[in-house]
From TrEMBL:
Keyword tRNA processing applies: yes
Residues annotated as binding substrate: Y99
Assigned keywords, A-Z: Isomerase, tRNA processing
Gene (name only): truA
Complexes and interactors: Homodimer.
Alphabetized SUPFAM superfamilies for the sequence: Pseudouridine synthase
Protein name in UniProt: tRNA pseudouridine synthase A
Gene Ontology BP terms: tRNA pseudouridine synthesis
Keyword Cell wall biogenesis/degradation appears in the UniProt entry: no
Domain (Pseudouridine synthase I TruA alpha/beta) ranges: 132-233
GO molecular function terms attached to this record: RNA binding; tRNA pseudouridine(38-40) synthase activity
Function, in words: Formation of pseudouridine at positions 38, 39 and 40 in the anticodon stem and loop of transfer RNAs.
Organism of origin: Thermaurantimonas aggregans
């Protein structure tokens, strides 16, 4: 089953819709789950959080977890159900998110639609890491934001932007307090332009300061992007009785 992103859409099967249906079936009343973010079609999530409200007592959270996994599609897994405070919010209570983007250098059928195949000259990780340091800190990232977003502002605080080598290629990891629509894919596309010699360091810096999406590189495909971590303060969780 292929999902059209997280958020409910007309005439499309999404993760949110599927989870709502499973929760409503198991709990026997209508349930609406709110996710930590709205991943685009094709983007994967190794870790995702969602919250829901219910007026019915849930005595056995482990049993609820097993019941949900018993009726969900095999490419969705509920790892754990936790109690949280009434004012906790899966999206707005999050303090940090992390994404990874995978690139491989040789044809591999097991990585199809899971990693970006790059058949040209391999990248120099040290060069990519040097230019990626310009992303760190609190900045206006509107040059990497897809038009049509409804954010009140385009400032994000990037806390990590790092490339590492893998057994099959390279991986980009970025961590920030928040992300804009399409931001990570646009950043990766622009960094690859720099790594392949299409942009100079001065030009990359100019793009970052421009606030103009048209100056940045093309967005890379979504299928190699993974939401890998969402962080919350410990104070929102309630210990099981």
């Amino acid at each position: 089953m292929a999902f059209h992103g997280w958020q409910i859409q007309p005439n499309s099967i999404t993760v949110q819709q599927t989870l709502n249906e499973a929760l409503s079936t198991v709990l026997r009343h209508d349930v609406y789950a709110v996710g930590a973010g709205r991943t685009d079609t094709g983007v994967h999530a190794r870790q995702m959080f969602a919250h829901f409200d219910t007026s019915e007592p849930i005595d056995d959270l482990e049993r609820l977890t097993r019941s949900l996994n018993g009726i969900l599609y095999p490419n969705i897994a509920v790892n754990q159900v936790l109690r949280v405070r009434d004012d906790a919010h899966a999206r707005f209570s999050a303090t940090e998110r992390e994404y990874q983007y995978d690139i491989h250098y040789k044809h591999n059928p097991f990585l199809y639609q899971r990693s970006l195949l790059w058949l040209w000259q391999p990248f120099e990780v040290a060069d990519l890491n040097r230019i990626s340091q310009r992303l760190l800190g609190e900045k206006d990232f509107s040059c990497f934001e897809k038009t049509g977003g409804n954010n009140k502002h385009s400032f994000c605080q990037v806390r990590l932007a790092k490339w590492t080598e893998t057994d099959v290629g390279i991986r980009f990891t970025i961590r920030a307090n928040r992300f804009l629509r399409n931001m990570v894919r646009a950043i990766v596309g622009t960094l690859l332009d720099y790594g392949s010699g299409k942009l100079s360091e001065v030009e990359f810096a100019s793009i970052l300061e421009s606030g103009d999406r048209r100056q940045a590189g093309a967005s890379v495909p979504p299928y190699a992007l993974y939401l890998t971590q969402v962080c919350y303060p410990d104070t929102i969780f309630i210990a099981n009785e």
